[in-house]
Design goal:
This protein is of the alpha/beta class and about 375 residues long. The chain is built from 11 helices and 13 strands. Helices cover about 40% and strands about 20% of the residues. It starts with a helix and ends with a helix.
Length: about 375
């Protein structure tokens, strides 16, 4: 046996086969999907899981749903909360909330790979970690790490020669030029009016998935970006990333103006110049809050007073250089007419989409809008 053969002794090469999922992993994957639909209700999700198990036979006599529930507790996916009166109630943990966001990211943006720095490259010269291939003279305050040793030594040799000993002065130093890295501030507006569950169509669950995926995308791939999430019905308010799995539709009308007012207020506070708004909605604006606190509501057609206020908000955002991208989960002619006028007032973008491609469209526009705003 020659040396080369001896070098490979003990190694067996064969086609890689992915390990089969355990019953726990299969059930956990389904559980994470169900918990999004039930808005965090563990008991309801487990009831649905039991129905699926009865139909498809996922568990075995060796590993039952009771075993799965115990493993969820042991592995930190659910916990027991003691309510007033001493009654126990199951709740998901922060670990599960993160797992749901990651699942949503994989479902919607599965083609992405996680990157390290998470900054957006621009065509502006400035502080960054990616060189342009060009050099400039050293300026006091430049990082020493950016000094090009090769080019600086070459300048010293040309400028001073080597006859009288080697000399290197500050005037000989050059630094690598780098691309400036910019930040983006995004506000995601989610419509939680009653129409998001009307006519037997669940529109809020896909909207939640998109929000969770976008949140996971920004916090992992672009950690220096900011994402604010707001919901709007009769009024508008901020929610946290942790609140997303529990988001529910209410008996609300659609106060788009309140959502816009809050979104612009949040973005005005951001120091970076790159800002944008995404709005996911399926209905026309139908509500305003009057100065005296009362609500003005009209669900019949397009109320010109309400839509007029919406157009004014769109123009205000345009003056602040904040583009609005509207994702309309409906294609009724009068709704399209409103969105077209709203988009024209802002000079933003609009997509009329069903529920299937919503996530990919939001991601595509996040990427394209970011590049356009930063390079502009």
């Amino acid at each position: 046996m020659n040396n080369r053969s001896q070098a490979y002794t003990g190694f067996v090469f064969k086609k890689y086969e992915a390990p089969e999922q355990s019953i726990f992993d299969i059930l956990l994957d389904i559980f994470k999907e169900l918990i999004t639909h039930t808005s965090g209700d563990v008991d309801e999700a487990l009831d649905w899981l039991a129905e699926l198990d009865a139909e498809y036979g996922i568990t075995t006599s060796e590993y039952t749903l009771k075993d799965f529930e115990e493993d969820l507790k042991k592995k930190g996916f659910i916990r027991e909360e003691i309510k007033p009166g001493g009654k126990g109630e199951k709740a998901i943990t922060a670990k599960t909330e993160r797992a749901i966001r990651q699942k949503a990211l994989n479902q919607i943006f599965g083609k992405l790979r996680k990157s390290g720095a998470g900054n957006h490259k621009t065509n502006k010269i400035g502080v960054g970690d990616e060189t342009t291939g060009e050099f400039r003279n050293y300026i006091f305050g430049d990082s020493v790490e950016r000094v090009s040793i090769t080019e600086s030594l070459r300048n010293a040799q040309i400028n001073h020669g080597i006859e009288n000993g080697f000399q290197l002065t500050e005037d000989d130093l050059v630094v690598h030029e780098t691309n400036h890295k910019a930040q983006m501030s995004t506000v995601l507006m989610i419509d939680i009016s009653h129409s998001m569950i009307l006519y037997g169509e669940d529109r809020i669950t896909p909207a939640k998935k998109v929000a969770m995926a976008l949140a996971e995308l920004i916090t992992t791939r672009y950690p220096k970006d900011t994402l604010e999430i707001i919901v709007f019905g009769n009024d508008s308010w901020r929610i946290s990333i942790q609140d997303l799995p529990y988001l529910q539709v209410g008996p609300y009308h659609t106060n788009t103006v309140a959502g816009m007012e809050l979104a612009l207020d949040l973005l005005r506070r951001k120091r970076n110049t790159n800002k944008q708004i995404f709005m996911i909605t399926d209905g026309k604006p139908s509500c305003l809050r009057l100065p005296d606190g009362r609500y003005y509501k009209n669900s019949n057609g397009l109320d010109q007073y309400i839509v007029g206020r919406c157009y004014a908000m769109a123009q205000q955002a345009r003056k602040l250089h904040i583009p609005i991208t509207t994702f309309m989960i409906a294609q009724d002619p009068y709704l399209m007419k409103f969105v077209e006028a709203f988009t024209k007032a802002n000079q933003g973008k609009a997509f009329y989409t069903g529920l299937k491609g919503l996530g990919e469209m939001i991601f595509e526009d996040y990427e394209q809008n970011r590049k356009k705003r930063i390079k502009g």
